[in-house]
Every structure is written in structure tokens, then in C-alpha cells.
Amino acid sequence: MKHREKSLIALPVYNEASTIHAVLDQVVGYGHPVLVVNDGSTDDTLKLLQQRDDIIVVTHEKNSGYGAALLTAFQYADDHDFDIVVTMDCDGQHEPQLIPKFIKACRSVDIVSGSRYLKQFDGQSEPPAQRLFINRRVTSELNRLLGFQLTDSFCGFKAYRVEALKKLNVTETGYAMPLELWVESAKAGLNIVELPVPLIYLDENRSFGGALDDGSTRLNYYHFVLDRSLARSGLASTGAQTMASC
């Protein structure tokens, strides 16, 4: 009998009380187990999560970072024998109706990465200028260094094959975690595709936390993590498989 693949939907959350129920009400409707990693929220997020019996909740006692929440989700997926893990944000900026497309695309590749710049959708948001500049600059550098053809290096809407994640040594716990993930993916020779998603900004002033709200500080942090990841991996210029788009 052919193995029926199991998919997990994972959402890292930090102080998302205003959107948590609206997003989860949609996500649970797709019939897959839903994991919420509560990363030390200080608002009513945990209280609201505890009201539900249709999700799995793992809580970090202290805020440990976006990357840390994703790493917890990856470990949960591995420990519970899932084949695919889909990650998405819980702030209303990712559309749950795309979950089936991500899962379908991930059946034949290692990583499906959402891209807000691969296709223009009617009525989509205009990205904040500073965020667009940083995304384009970092994405261009990743493409040059790793041989990728990415159009969006930071979109949190992704699907991963759990077996592929086992090949990666990702330790970064902050917002720059995706950069280390891209370097490790290049080193492992993973097959990657991008899937277009609408560009939705509901809160253009959303904080990255403390000093990272300053664009130059954030860019320096990204470069630090990227340089450290490249040095550790032994990758200096290229070596990744060419990407395609779904």
C-alpha cells in the first residue's frame, strides 16, 4: 500500500491576539494538523490559544525569536513523522487558501518558497520602500553567491519536506534565520521552487523588535548572519541547483 503523506501546518506567533482566531479558523478548515508555536507572547495570545481544542500548541516561556519558533516547528514535524511542514504567519498577511497548492508543489521538490514578487495580483499592497530595498538587495546577493534565482528571500509562507530539513544545520534563532537556511539548502543541493503569493501588508509599521527596526542595523545583521553561514558551510560563490517557478 502506498504511503499516504502527512502534512503539518505550523504558525510561529508572538503577540497575535488581534488576528489569532480569524486566521486559525481558516487554517484548520483544510484538514491538516495545525501547530502553533507561541514564542513567549506577552499579550492574550496564549489565553486565546488555550480556548481552542482544534490545534496543537507549543509554548516558549521566553521570546526566543522567529527562527527559534520555526526550528521548534521543524523538530515537532520530525518527531511526529510528518512528511511535509507548511509554515505561514498568523498576522493575516498569508492566505490560507494557498495551503493545498504549497502541499501539492512540495510533493516533488524539497522546498516550496512563497514569493510576493513573482506575480502581480489584483488589489495587492504596495510594499514599504525600505523593506522592498532590503529584500531586493539581500535576494540579489543570495542569487549571486549561491547560484539561485530567487525573487523573494524572506517570505515566511513555505513548504518543506521534512526529510530534506534533516540535511540542514540551521541554528540562527532570529529574523535572519532564512538566510542561513538558504545557505544550508545550497550546500545540501536541495531542489527548490517558488510559488507566487499576494503581497499583503496589513501593518506597514510592524516592528522587528528594538534596534532591528532601523533599516541599516537590520541589513548589517542580515549580512553578519549570511557571512557567518557562508564561512561555516564552505560555500564562497556558487554550488546551488537552479531554481524554477511553479
Structure description:
With 246 residues, this protein is an alpha/beta fold. It has helices at 20-27, 45-49, 66-79, 99-105, 129-146, 162-165, 177-188, 215-233, and strands spanning 7-13, 34-39, 56-60, 84-87, 111-115, 158-161, 192-196, 244-245. It has an eight-stranded mixed β-sheet with strand order 3-2-1-4-6-5-7-8, with helices on both faces. α1 (20-27) links the parallel β1 (7-13) and β2. α7 runs parallel beside α8. The two termini are 29 Å apart.
What's this model, at a glance?
This protein is α/β, with parallel strands linked by helices and 246 residues long. It has eight helices and eight strands, in the order E-H-E-H-E-H-E-H-E-H-E-H-H-E-H-E.
